[in-house]
Design goal:
about 220 residues; alpha/beta; Rossmann fold; 2 domains; 7-stranded mixed beta sheet; 7 helices
């Protein structure tokens, strides 16, 4: 019995390695440093597209992961908001009701993979607009396909239609874009595979099968 199980496992591993090889994946990527997951790759691609247009007073959520994406001379001030106090957090507030932040405060708001953790995204969308200065820019991403990840809760997955419903009434100028394809979606749900997709696989775009969605909006 044990010999039969061992044989089946070896056959399964051989089949998986063959699939990986045919797909152009690299099973040894971890030996050459931490690679990008599809989500991280697409977020950075999106931010790079608009980074040159952004300057002034910035707001990011959670941790200032993407401050490095913007030109040093363009950042006059960089605030970080979270509900949990930490060293890098400058504003302790709930995005659904940011009473600590006056109207028209920020030139740029960077909100990546946050909205799925918000119980009332309609309130959050209204607050994001309220906190932006006239002419200010919102750079936002949300998951379209992603495993459950409570932090501490995980409420939503989004489509272009739902983002238009949430933000269309608040912004006159809004661009919604999907990033990803079927292979990237599959890799996102299969954690090991998500670290081994070659860049050429990530660059193929399928608007009907996005991993994440982005919003670029101006107030």
């Amino acid at each position: 019995m044990l010999i039969a199980i061992e044989f089946c496992i070896k056959r399964l591993l051989s089949s998986l390695l063959w699939i990986v090889w045919r797909a152009g994946l690299n099973p040894f990527t971890f030996l050459s440093g931490k690679p990008d997951t599809p989500g991280r790759h697409y977020i950075e691609q999106f931010l790079q597209q608009y980074a040159h247009e952004c300057a002034g007073h910035f707001l990011e959520f959670g941790t200032p992961v993407y401050r490095r994406m913007f030109l040093p001379g363009s950042v006059e001030r960089y605030d970080v908001m979270d509900v949990v106090p930490r060293a890098e957090v400058t504003i302790i507030a709930d995005l659904q009701n940011c009473v600590a932040v006056p109207d028209n405060t920020f030139d740029v708001i960077v909100c990546t993979q946050v909205l799925e953790h918000i119980a009332d995204p309609f309130k959050a969308a209204a607050e994001l607009r309220r906190m932006l200065k006239p002419g200010g820019r919102l750079l936002l991403t949300v998951p379209a396909a992603y495993p459950y990840h409570a932090d501490p809760h995980d409420y939503w997955r989004f489509t272009k239609d739902s983002l238009q419903l949430l933000f269309g009434e608040h912004f006159n100028q809004i661009e919604i874009k999907g990033y990803g394809n079927r292979l990237a979606v599959i890799a996102t749900y299969w954690f090991w595979m998500s670290y081994h997709l070659p860049r050429r696989a990530l660059e193929q775009s399928d608007p009907n099968n996005p991993v994440l969605l982005s919003i670029y909006a101006r107030k």
